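For concreteness, we quote verbatim a single protein encoded this way:
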Amino acid sequence: MARFEHTVSVAALDRGWFEEAAGVVVGLLDASREQDGAILLADGRAVDGVRLLKGRHLQPGARYAGVPEPGEADGTERTPASSDAPPVSEAAVLREWRPLRSIEVESLMEEESLSVRAKIRLRDPLTPRALELSVSGHNPKGGSLYRFSGRGKADLAAWWAAVDRPHAAPPAARPPVAGTAVHRLGKARLTVTPRRTEDGSWRVSVVLGVRGRWLLRPVGAVALFFARGPMTRGFREAVESAAEEWNTALAELTPLHGEALRTEIADALTEPAERPEPTGSAEPAERKAL
């Protein structure tokens, strides 16, 4: 079994702000309604990029999909929510909506060579306590070598308990975040354990264990022996990149509260997201006019 470990320092997230923001998001969506497929907040503005395809909004079985950009071909017909929608390549199905207890969403992605199904469950959504994820995928035209599965859980209550420990105390005995991925050729386990530092930031230790399965264990051991150097560097770079993105995201957050926070989140849900400028050899209109 190969074991990779790397520790990074990241900015601390305020628990009170996080739980308040989560409660605002859930509250805004719980008060939303559907009109001709569009999802409208209580103030009448439409949630950007989401459309109801089938079922009743916020009821088990409701099927949603993204709205393509003008001119983008995704093969999906836009039909009224009351009619049977044709199959889509990507969709999300609401399995449970109980803001006081749990919310579960199933994501479906199907292509010619890949089919992926993922389920996400949030416990105690108004003050999030745990986030659970399961995923499975396969090639519809392939065999067992094209199948994989994974499962993970972020115990948020355990996370907050871990970062609330004195900085001189040993890290939590049980990692608050853990996940496994399984393939016929191998199995991987990932854990994430935080601890508070003296300056109030978090030191986060990420550990990845990889091993071969069944008769492939000896072969996997040899392959890991020769690939250990590149894998170690790649693992460290991935962890440090994730830490940089976390720090950047937190630095951009405005510590709003109350009605100001609600307004900010409502704007974020309804305003079109920034999309990258198209690339290519097309010249600007001003140049074409010359």
Q: What stands out?
A: Residues 71-83, 279-290 have pLDDT under 50 and may be disordered.
